[in-house]
Amino acid sequence: MKLYLDIISPKPKFILFDNNNLIKTLELLDKKKSKISDSIDIKYLELSNKYNFARKLSHLYICIGPASYTALRVGISFLLGLSYSLNIPLISFKYETFLKHYIKRNHYFNTVIFIFSSQNQNFIFYPKNKIKKYEIEKIRYDELMTNKKIFLYKNCLINTNLSRKILDKINKKFDNTKILECSDYFNFFKNNVKDNKKLIKPLYISDNKIFD
Prior knowledge:
With 212 residues, the chain is an alpha/beta fold. It is 28% helix and 28% strand. The chain folds into two domains: 2-95 and 182-211, Nucleotidyltransferase, domain 5, CATH 3.30.420.40; 96-179. The chain contains five helices and twelve strands.
C-alpha cells in the first residue's frame, strides 16, 4: 500500500492506494477541525485503524508546493516523522514537475496551469521559455476570471475540481481543460519512487517571489 498526503488542494486529504487502485480518500478538515495541525494525526489514526496498513505501507508521497505555507510545513513535518518511524521511503515532488508530465510537448507554450490550495492560496503558472520554466503568479480566487493574461492560452490544466460556475466560465475560454484525477497521480508515482526525504524543502510564494 502507498499513502499520498495531498496538502495542495483546497480540501487537504490522505489518499490511500495500492497497485494504482484507489482504496480510500479521507479529508483532513471537517466541521470540528478547521486546522490541519489539529486534525492530521487524528485522521491518520482513523485511516490506519480502519485499514490496518501501518506494516503494509511501502511508500509515502507528498508535494512540496507551491501551496499554503502552513499546510506545507505541517504536512511535510508529519510525513517526515512517519517515514522515519516506519522506516519507509518518502517521495517528494514539486507540483510543476508533476503537471508538466501531463502537458503534451507541442502544447507547452499554449497551456496555462492553475493550482488552487487552502486558505485562498492560488497560483497561475505561465510558460516562460524554451527550457520549460514557468512564471508563477499568486492570485485570489475571485481574481481568476478577471485576469486577462490567462486567456492568451488555448489550454489549461487544473489541480482540483472547482465550482460549476467557475468551471463553466473556464470551459468557454479554453479549447481544452483537464482536471487532474487520482489516476493521474498514480501514473506519475509509478516512475517516481526514489526516497528523497533528506532533500525536502517547502516551496511557497509571497509577493510572486519563490522561496524554498
